[in-house]
Specification:
With 279 residues, the protein is of the alpha+beta class. Helices cover 17% and strands 29% of the residues.
Length: 279
């Protein structure tokens, strides 16, 4: 149960591990943990080989794969509870290059035709005024009535954002998002340790870890006080994924990372600020 999950988070074997930092930088993701693999969801939102995180099932349903009409995978996003808004990174929206954006709420996507009942078109609404620093964007369903029916039919309830949550160094967190194919610079040994041999990509995964720093600093000593660092391993496509606490509330959003060190995430108060501006 949930208490089991929390106690396991406190186990030293699951806490921060010393990993090799070879200075390679990737703006979208980083492989970090050697000792805690990223777990794949089945189509019915069960975690393969693990029962202790089954509490995540109702929350995982609210995380979507952002894609083109043809099904090209661009990034991850998540539905805000009691709203028609989907949150993601500004960078993800930019990567669409003006193409229509579709949100697919399926753990193991197949193709736009097979997944039609789980897909709704979304439109860009708002980003932070300083999008180079605050990588946050708000989307909204184009057809709210159809989206509401989809959510009701498939138990998509949305995630609770905790804008006043005080993130603490060392606390257990997890990232749930879609893992695309790894980048060319990513360490093959770390990849296998975290995702197994010949893993399936472009599916929903949960990666757990801890908060490593309250101010993100890269290897070039550039500091980002608006972001905190965590050591959940995330692959291409994970940008825009929610960072969740023990109660599966959103306390951050995945932005970027540095190979072998840790990933960074936007703070919840900044996400709320962009949401307020989009109202």
């Amino acid at each position: 149960g949930l208490e089991c999950a929390r106690s396991r988070m406190a186990d030293p074997r699951w806490m921060s591990a010393t990993t090799q930092d070879d200075g390679r930088f990737d703006r979208e993701e980083a492989l970090v943990r050697r000792d805690r693999p990223a777990l794949a969801y089945t189509q019915d939102y069960k975690l393969e080989g693990e029962k202790w995180e089954d509490e995540s099932t109702p929350f995982a349903r609210s995380i979507c794969r952002l894609q083109t009409k043809e099904g090209e995978f661009i990034g991850s996003g998540w539905l805000l509870k009691d709203s028609t808004k989907v949150i993601t990174n500004h960078k993800v929206v930019n990567d669409f290059g003006g193409r229509d954006i579709y949100a697919c709420f399926r753990a193991v996507p197949k193709d736009p035709t097979a997944d039609a009942a789980y897909i709704q078109q979304v439109k860009y609404v708002k980003s932070h005024a300083n999008s180079d620093v605050f990588d946050i964007a708000v989307l909204e369903f184009v057809n709210p009535a159809a989206a509401k029916k989809m959510c009701t039919d498939h138990k998509i309830n949305g995630l609770v954002l905790k804008p006043k949550y005080k993130v603490e160094r060392g606390e257990g967190v997890r990232v749930i998002g879609y893992s695309g194919a790894p980048g060319p610079l990513q360490d093959k040994k770390l990849l296998e340790a975290n995702f197994g041999k010949n893993p399936t990509y472009n599916i929903l995964r949960l990666s757990a870890g801890t908060v490593m720093a309250l101010v993100w600093e890269d290897s070039k000593k550039n500091k980002f006080p608006n972001r905190f660092g965590h050591d959940c391993s995330v692959l291409n496509g994970g940008e825009g994924s929610p960072v969740l606490n023990d109660d599966f509330e959103v306390i951050g959003m995945q932005c970027s990372g540095e190979e072998g060190t840790f990933n960074d995430a936007e703070y919840p108060a900044d996400i709320k600020a962009v949401l307020d501006q989009s109202a």
